[in-house]
Design goal:
alpha/beta; Rossmann fold
Length: 223
């Protein structure tokens, strides 16, 4: 084991991003530029809002250049809402201590997030985590972010490690799906509202405290 890849929001930090605001602004914009009214709602993941909108616009004959312009504007909306919130973020319990131990044992640390790069850098610096991180792969660093495995492959290249040498830790099914598609071992950082049995059904390990990842890595590194 040479690297541990972490999701950001609700894995390393408690974010205070106003997702309801983000989604409502995004949906209003998308409907203004031609997405069928009523097709989108704020109960959807941002991932699905974007995917469904692109399919809808293409189905109505929008060019790829038009779609790219729309997606660029959506990114700006999302970035702005994220940046408005970074000062309110807090660190998850035991994260600094855990990252310090992992670095002391020679592990590289990567961040793979659907937040934008600027927000990620600012929030890591604010919370004193930036010095532990070797590489960041944010939403705007790749053409398609997780669950697309290319997001993970991009970060692996930045870290200089192979699929077999990495472990991915996250709190969401998007993280698990990305890990599965990339062939990376996955560990679920289980939130209090998540059922540990669900992770067992899907065949991946779950932890409830960040310090547990140190033991997981040590066992993985044993010959």
């Amino acid at each position: 084991m040479k690297a541990v890849i972490f999701d950001l929001d609700e894995t390393l930090i408690h974010s205070r991003i106003d997702f309801k605001k983000m989604k409502s602004q995004t949906i209003r914009y998308l409907e203004r530029v031609g997405v069928t009214p009523g097709l989108l709602n704020d109960r959807m993941l941002n991932f699905d809002i974007t995917r469904i909108s692109v399919e809808n616009l293409r189905g109505k004959g929008s060019s790829e250049e038009d779609v790219k312009r729309v997606l660029a504007k959506v990114d700006k909306i999302m970035n702005q809402v994220e940046l408005e919130s970074f000062d309110e973020a807090t660190v998850v319990d035991d994260v600094p201590e855990t990252l310090e131990v992992l670095k002391a044992e020679g592990l590289k640390i990567g961040i793979m997030t659907r937040s934008c790069h600027e927000y990620t850098e600012k929030v890591l610096a604010k919370l004193g985590l930036a010095d532990y991180v070797d590489a960041i792969a944010a939403r705007d660093d790749v053409e398609e972010s997780k669950p697309n495995p290319e997001h993970a492959f991009h970060l692996l290249r930045l870290l200089g490690v192979s699929v077999e040498e990495a472990l991915l830790v996250g709190d969401h099914w998007l993280d698990a799906e990305c890990a599965s598609r990339a062939g990376i071992r996955f560990v679920l950082f289980r939130r209090p509202d998540q059922d540990v049995q669900a992770s067992q059904v899907h065949g991946y390990q779950a932890i409830g405290n960040m310090t547990e990842i140190v033991d997981v890595v040590r066992r993985s590194s044993c010959p």
